[in-house]
Amino acid sequence: MSFIDDDRPQKKVAYEIGSDLSMLSVDELKERVEVLKAEIARIEAEVTRKASGRAAAESLFRS
Question: Quick check: helix, strand or coil at residue 20?
Fold first, then answer.
């Protein structure tokens, strides 16, 4: 690792699976729930997009 890498800002991890939740407030916990819901929606949208692309390819090759 070069000294140049040390100057870059570190990306804050929004949530780490299995992390200790006992020190978080109710508001912080609710915020994490919302972040995770948004991430689930993003992942599900990508799954849908990929599935529709795969179905289109399969129908093309079945013809």
Answer: coil
Give the structural domain span for 53: 26-63
Q: How far apart are CA 31 and CA 48, in angstroms?
A: 26
Sign of torsion over alpha carbons 49, 45, 21, 10? positive
Query: pLDDT tens digits for 19-53?
Result: 999 999 999 999 999 999 999 999 999 999 999 88
**Domains in the chain, number:** 1
Distances (CA, A) of 47 to 21, 35, 36: 29, 19, 16
Measure the N-to-C terminal CA separation of the chain; round to a whole number of Å.
Answer: 53
CB atoms within 10 A of CB 31: 14
Overall pTM > 0.85: no
